[in-house]
Structures are given as C-alpha cells and as structure tokens.
C-alpha cells in the first residue's frame, strides 16, 4: 500500500487533520502551524488539550471532523489497514505520514533510509556517527532520534540518516536512491495483518519511486528468499566481509551481528559518495568516541563477578539470538518473556539449546510459559541448565544472579515487547538496572 504523493508545502494554508498525538504527532502539529495550516486534532485516546487546542476522540466525533479536512496526517502507530483509513481515502481525502511528506521534497541524494526488523537503530546511529566523524553535518532521525521536518530540529545538514519502521514504510510515496536493510523476521503481525504483508510493507522502502540500490544483510536467509522485494539492485553484506579489517573496533560494539551492521553502514556511505568512507584509517578515526544506544547489549554492572547486560530492546527472537551469540563460551542466565503477541518461539529454543556453554533461562509473564514450552519440546543437551518461570523481574534477576556466579552473564534479552508491565523498553531496562544496583 502506497501513500499519496504530497509534500509538506502542499499543505500550506489547508485544513489538515492531525491523527495521533504522540511524539511524531506533536511534530506534525508544529510543522502545520509553521505552514499556516488549520490543524484539527484527533486521537484514539485523547489526554486533554494540546497547546490549548481541543483533541477529539476518533470514535466520538473525531472521524467526522477528519472527513471535513483537506488532508489527514496520521501518526505511524495507526495502521494504514484500519477501516477508517479506507473510509477517508474513499472520500478522496489523502491520508499521509509526516516522514513521507518530508521525503517528497527532500534532496534524496543526501538521504539514507535504514530499515529492518532489528539492527536498524544501531546501524543508523553508527552511520550518523561515522558521517560526523568524517567532518560532515548529519541528522539521525525518523524512528530514532529527531523528526527531520520538526521546526524544533531545523538546521543546515549535509546528510540525513533516517530509520524507517515498518509502520512508517507504508506512508512513503518515494525512496532515496540508497536504502539499507539490516534484517528480516516476523513482527508486528497484528498491525500489518499477516507475516507476508509485514514482509512486503517492511521492504517497500526499497522499491518506491527513486530507489536504486539496497544494501542488505547477506546472512539472512529470509532476506535472500525475498530478494524480489529489494528493489532494482542489491549489494549483500555479510559478517565475514572485509576479513581482517578492524576499523570498526573503536565503536566498541559486541557481537558478529554488530560487525555486519558496521559493514552495512560503510557500504552505504560509499554508495552515498561520502568522502573518506573508502579509507580504513579515516574511518577508524571517525569511529572513535561512539556511544552505544541504551538497552542494546549494554553492560549495567558487575556484581560478585557476574556481568549484567541490558538488551531490553530485543523484542523478538532474532535479536535475542544475536545477543546470545555475542557471548561465546560464557555461561548465560537469559531473562526472557513479556507481552505475548503470538510469535513462534521454536527458533529461540533451537538457538538456546545449540549453545556449547551452560545456559539457564528465567521466563517472565506473559509469553514466558510459551517460551518454556518451546524449550521443553526439544531434548535439551547436557550443557543446558533448565528453564524456570518467574513472577517478576526482581525474582528473575535474583535467581539468575545466584546461578551465574562466579563469572557468568545475566542477560535481559526478552524476545518480547514490554507492554503491560512497563511503559516501554527503556522503562524495562531501567527497572533491570535498579534491581542489579540493589544486589550490589
């Protein structure tokens, strides 16, 4: 599904619906006010006024108000497959996304879009850091960091690195010449309506008008199976490319998957024509000073010889497997489980039981019992120490710490979202750190 091709400039002076008032929704409002547009604010669950303006509930007058607009700018979290979107579109009212409006009039030769089920945030941040280290002004934005069209983020940039979620991808009318894809794995199936539709939506940024090259994870069997969705030309990048190269060492990122993320970043910089990206010495110097993103294989402390690692952003199987691989030969107590959205945990069980080093799994509500069932459905090897359901994060960390002594790793890598128990993955990671600090 493709959004209509409009730009922000097309909305100047118009009556425009702002549907969804999250982080991006507030940026949409600021942009429309700067353009002299007349905003109409609507949200599924309004929480009072915004800047003195009333916010209508979608189901209580909001949809009717949107029907009287010239266009509607929706937040990415609102599925393009909702019947209300089809209803508005059927009335001839364009339903668009803020990022798509920005891309429609951006200098796409200086824009890189980065997508993927997991790894896109790290790859985006590494790419932006390298561009800055090479001496150029770069905004890292989109699904991570700044909203590129927000008047509060105005500035003079040489390049833009834009992380694109599967939600945002359905709102794009066009693509820059270079797009990166870091991984592919089933996710957000309720929003997209099924796994194959998720794959098509996730990879749609690779083939919108303007797309020329996709730099893709060559170690992903799923991506290779879906190569037809990757646009006119693909360059595959694998963990073992550039053997012996160590220019990425100053990044300080653990795991072979992060080596591949860094290699994808470099390949994109070369494709964009960023001066200096082809030289190892300059790139190594540019890599210095990188600060890893929070809750992505972040060590939060060492207590009694046990290392505690926050990987709370791992919300499905793929990144949790990568996190396990980041500690070869180490005994790991894995804390997994969270909001249950019905994904298949058999691949997680297979990866856990394939480890040579001792592994112990502590599960959390609500997907924890399904994780345990997937593990118990496979005959565990002698190195596997077992699986235990825990009532909460405190109980899991306490038991994991006891087992992991004297020199193991306690790894929070849930393979599930945090909905219900925590506000978001950051809140979950902060709660983990508090428990760890309490142990010390």
Explain this structure.
The chain is of the alpha/beta class and 440 residues long. The protein is built from 16 helices and 17 strands. It has helices at 23-34, 62-66, 83-90, 98-103, 120-133, 166-169, 189-192, 195-203, 221-225, 256-272, 280-287, 317-325, 346-353, 368-376, 393-404, 425-439, and strands at residues 15-19, 38-43, 55-57, 71-74, 95-97, 111-115, 138-142, 159-163, 178-181, 213-217, 234-237, 298-303, 306-310, 332-336, 359-363, 384-389, 409-412. Strands 7-8-6-9-10-11 form a 6-stranded parallel sheet, with helices on one face. Helix 3 (83-90) links the parallel strand 4 (71-74) and strand 5 (95-97).
Number of helical elements: 16
Share of residues in strands: 15-25%
Indicate the overall shape: globular
The biggest sheet, with number of strands, parallel, antiparallel or mixed sense and barrel status, is: 6 strands, parallel
Rg computed from alpha carbons, rounded to a whole number of angstroms: 22 Å
Helix content: 25-40%
Low-pLDDT sequence parts: none
Average the pLDDT over all residues and give the rounded result.
Answer: 93
Structural class: alpha/beta
Strand order of the largest sheet: 7-8-6-9-10-11
What is the straight-line distance between the termini? 52 Å
DSSP strand count: 17
Question: What's this, in brief?
Answer:
It contains 16 helices and 17 strands. β1 (15-19), α1 and β2 (38-43) form a beta-alpha-beta unit. 33% of the residues lie in helices and 18% in strands.
